[in-house]
Design a protein that fits this description.
By secondary structure, this protein is of the alpha+beta class. Helix content is 60%, strand content 14%. It has one domain.
Length: 155
């Protein structure tokens, strides 16, 4: 038995849509699709909105990876800065005791300034890690789709 070759039905002309988004250090996402030639503006808008949402999700994934790496570095810096403060004061107290100074331990003006600089550095790490965590949370909403839930939309 011979089978007849099936041919695709003739289709109406379509409108091609290319959607290109830069996501990271020279990398780009390119989406290509089409709609029927007689598609409404609303249909085209819906399609482009879907492409934008997909692109934003992919960008969120990339940025989250970068932010997680940055967060790990900032947390390491925080630990080092915290240890530096503790060690600085412990060293000063040990030096005070070794010098057999009389009276209660007291920081000099210079030592106090140095300790304040160390505390300012620690505070900078705390602020930076907090900011990074908030950015990661914001990107997480885009990744899991909740940023596009009807109740999340602000109009």
């Amino acid at each position: 038995m011979e089978q007849e070759a099936k041919t695709a039905p003739a289709t109406a002309a379509a409108i091609g849509i290319s959607f290109q988004v830069g996501v990271d250090d020279g990398r780009q996402l390119v989406f290509q699709t089409h709609v029927a030639q007689d598609a409404t503006r609303e249909d085209m808008d819906k399609l482009v909105d879907k492409l934008r949402q997909v692109a934003e999700r992919q960008e969120a994934i990339i940025q989250t990876e970068k932010l997680n790496d940055l967060l790990a570095k900032e947390e390491d810096g925080h630990r080092v800065a915290n240890a530096a403060i503790e060690n600085y004061e412990a060293d000063l107290q040990a030096n005070w005791a070794a010098a057999k100074k009389h009276g209660a331990f007291k920081l000099s003006t210079q030592e106090l300034a140095q300790k304040n600089n160390l505390k300012a550095n620690l505070t900078r790490f705390e602020v930076q890690t907090s900011r990074i965590r908030k950015n990661i949370e914001a990107y997480a909403k885009k990744i899991d789709g909740s940023a596009y839930a009807p109740e999340a939309k602000q109009e």
